[in-house]
Amino acid sequence: MNDDDLNELIDAFTAECEEFLQSMETNLLAMESAGLKERQAAVKEMFRAAHSIKGAGSMLGFKNVSAAAHTLEDCFVILRDRTDLSALEPTTVSVLLQGVDALKKITIESVQHSDVTTPDQTENLEAIAQIFAQFQAKYGKSEQQPVPAVSQSTAPETLKQIFEQQVPALFNRLETELSQGSEADLATSVTALKQVYYQLSGLAGMLQLPDFGKVAAALKDLIDSPDLTVQRLQSDGLTIAQNLQTARQQILEGRAIDIPEISPSPTLPLSPSSTPPEISPTPTLPLSPSPTPPEISPSSTLPVPNPQRPTIRVDLERLTELVNLVGELVINRTNLELQESELRGEVKRIRRNIVDLNQFGGQLREEYDRLSFAEWRGGNGNSGLGKLAAAETEFPMIANGKSSPVHAHFDILEMDRYTEFHSTAAEVIETAQAISQSATKLDTLAMKFERSTDQLRRITEQLRSRVMQLRVVSFSRAVDHLPRALREMCITYDKDVNLLLVGRDTKIDESLLDALRDPLIHLVRNAFDHGIEMPEVRKASGKSASGQIEIEARHQGGQTIITVADDGKGIDPEMIRRKVVTKGLATEEQAQEFSIAELYDFLFWPGFSTTEGVSDLSGRGVGLDVVRTNLRTVRGTVKVDSRLGKGTSFIIKLPLLLSITDALMVKTDHNKIAVPLDAVEEILHIKASEVHIAGNQPMLWWREEFIRLVRMQDLLEYSVLPPDAPSPDPLTQEEIPVLVLASTEGMLAVAVERLIGQQEIVVKPLPPPLSKPRGVLGTTILGDGRVVNILDVDDLVGQPVVNSSIAAISGKVQEIPASASQSPQILVVDDSYTIRQLLSLTLTRARYRVVQAKDGVDALEKLQNGLDCSLAIVDIEMPRMDGFELLRSIRSTQRFAKIPVAMLTSRSGAKHRQMAMELGANQYFTKPYSEAQLLQAIPKLIHHSII
Q: Could you give the CA distance from residue 27 to residue 459 in angstroms, rounded to a whole number?
């Protein structure tokens, strides 16, 4: 087995152990508030989980993991058989939780150190042994039963099922490899036989059948022989195969294994380096059966509908590629639908033209008949003769030389006469008929195309639904560890707090799990310490002594919304205002102008805390800063909503990495905008007389209340100005299309220019280094290739229309006089306008002040004119003065020598990096840069300049 196969198998083992350990912890916590039957079921689940870890560890050669899991399994046996679960003590749960923690540490250590026993492992093994000893001392020892030749660990029915259904296939493969061996393929045969041995040995270890393992060990001794030949392999190998068949028959009959021909050989535990990937075709399924309950199948440890259904583990990047391809398929399917619609329109237009052409052919025929009638009248002395003569002059008669004398004896009414005019008219009519037939075929093809497109739509929808389920996991995986953490805090700090998890089955992208765990822990700790009052305080304020923290997850508008709410004392904005002034972040006059939302935003600043003292839980000002920093790495946001004396809610919004959803397409300010359909509460068409005015704010009476009415272009901070006409005002139309939008911030009525229709769209977030603009969730690509922005309803509903919060903050920042306490100012030097704008946007959103310079000369002039900056971010290759020259000038000038300089360039070679460091650069970044890494490094660089 190569290293990749081994690592893949160990990764599967690690992931499986994590699931089993989390299952044990969840069941232990649930037992405290569960009834007797639920407790009994939980003990069985934990027993099976421990036994599965033991079997898996044994198969992969992790002896310490297997031993620790076996001891913990014995603890669950005592809990199941010799305790009164109806009177379960909290201390018993606490002790078992400590055992689960110790097993978790042993598992991690064993994987990291290839099962080499470390002092930490020894300590954790002793801790689990002490727990088992405590259980034996408290509940009594069980009577030792004699162990028969066939291990008791596996139920007879289960054992019989395995050796009847699974083992014969291994024996068949063994005999096939032995019979087909040759000198040329000896190495290949040995490799295949090793795989068979490892499977048989693993099966013996999993089922605790050491005698069967000894019989299989003879096969390993044979294939490891240095002087192995094909003749010996076949003769001795067939003998071993017969002995294995005999051992199998003895096991099925319930007798002890007795194979005198096989000398016993030592059975060492399997090392990870010798374990092949073929040990189990389903590495995610449990690797061992349940030892006592006969109704449990060998592969069943998790309560799934079909426990024997095979599963595989797939790399997350491959799933991401697959999901992206499905998104592209949806976009191209939309393009096909657009082309199909255009084709039907063209077919209809051709049919209309054919009707016109038929009418023209009919007119030609009528004109000919009229001229023929005129000739007949002319032959009878009528004046029409001159017209026919003129016609025949322009269109000569088509006459056959042989028949023309005969035709002379017939009157014009007795035999038709044809001119070129008649032939031309006939050709036109025939051509029109041919085109009509082609149009009919085109119409048939268009109908078939439409049916094929509908079929493709259904298949794409099914494919999209299936694929999207591949890379999503339940939200429970991000919060299942929180009840344990909250329980420990309640015991330590003498508080009674309940944790309510809502939407545990909400699906989130698996890659978001790691980014969510730390923020959720910090928010729960924050709610526990800052929000929930002590029991006596809660009783005095008329609340129940027990507090509650609720975590809810749901989907809305192509986003995952996670709310962490508590029913505690809430946040006092005046206390934040005083802290802002005390810390020198603003003057008292400026602090009075901050809105509630702006004050709440200070809670996420590094080092800002509302607690006077520092404790194990709070006071250091890092908790909420970690929340925002971690969420930025996945392009998430967090908002605060608090009611003094009622509680606080933190709303986390995470963009789905790729979501296919329904949207309402609207037109506003000459642009198409996609509005997530699940955020649209109602679509209205109102008259101008229905609009009410409250001061300068238009209002709409809707469902027995007034809600704000705004134009959509007033909410968005961007616009594309057309060259031909100004932007139309939807409020001046006779009939105004209005969308009533609903979000966590409330309700808002938005007037648009025109409603286009509903459409399925692929939500794609803006890629780094672009920051998420306010009010824009992401983008989508229409069937015609145009890129359309998707509205972020939550961002827009809560913001004021004029002088938005960001604009207000920007204005205040410019008014604050320069001081050491205000936000640092950063000089961005780059000849690329796009890079300067991107950096400025990123830094501004991180609450830094930004000054731009287009090259080194421009930057040096700004510094010489008195620019006070805390950091310079400089490109290398620029006109007039490059980054190296600017860096040399800064370091050689005493006034600027202490300014930290970070180089940001596309040159990633060691030569450029060494030159920058020799000239005095403090940091070196390469393009494309990571926004998260840049923002993380800037405070350290600025702190270096202060020191």
A: 41
Q: Give the integer Cα–Cα distance in Å for 38 and 627.
A: 36
Identify how many contiguous H helices and E strands the chain contains and give both numbers: 30, 23
Q: Residue 464, Cβ neighbours under 10 Å: how many? A: 20
Tokens representing 750 are: 């938005």
Tokens of 563: 């709310």
Region class of 347: left (phi > 0), else alpha (psi between -120 and 50), else beta: alpha
791 membership: H or E segment, kind and range: strand 787-791
Residues forming beta bridges with residue 905, ordered by sequence position: 926
Contact 568, 650 (CB under 8 A): no
Distance in angstroms (rounded) separating the CA atoms of residues 443 and 422: 31
49 within 8 A of 259, measured Cβ to Cβ: no
Q: How far is CA 911 from CA 468, 917, 937, in A?
A: 45, 10, 23
pTM of the model: 0.48
Sheet architecture: strand order including 871-874: 849-853, 825-829, 871-874, 901-905, 923-926
- Read off the tokens for 186: 């000896």
Q: How many CB atoms lie within 10 A of CB 779?
A: 17
CA 728: distance to chain centroid?
39
Instruction: Give the strand order in the sheet containing 691-694.
Output: 680-687, 735-743, 746-751, 705-711, 697-702, 691-694
| Alpha-carbon span 305 to 49, nearest angstrom | 17
Taking the C-alpha atoms of residue 227 and residue 260, their distance in angstroms, rounded to an integer, is: 25
Residues forming beta bridges with residue 473, ordered by sequence position: 508
- Which residue has tokens 């924050």? 526
**Joined tokens for residue 607:** 């080092």
At 646, which amino acid appears? Answer: K
Q: Is 109 exposed, middle or buried (0-12, 13-18, 19+ CB in 10 A)?
A: buried
- Length of the chain counted residue by residue: 947
* Cα atoms found within 13 Å of the Cα of residue 72, Cβ hemisphere only: 38
CA distance 419 to 399: 9
- By DSSP bridging, strand 671-676 and strand 659-668 are antiparallel
Mean pLDDT of each 10-residue bin along the chain, 947 residues long = 63 82 87 84 87 77 84 86 81 88 88 76 86 80 43 54 73 75 76 77 73 81 81 81 81 73 38 34 33 33 40 70 77 80 83 80 73 60 48 50 54 63 73 80 84 83 75 82 85 88 85 81 88 89 90 80 91 88 82 82 79 60 72 77 89 71 84 85 88 80 84 73 59 85 78 87 72 77 80 72 35 34 79 79 81 88 86 89 90 88 86 88 84 82 65
Distance CA 636, CA 632 (A): 5
For the chain, helix, strand, coil in percent to 5 are 55, 15, 30
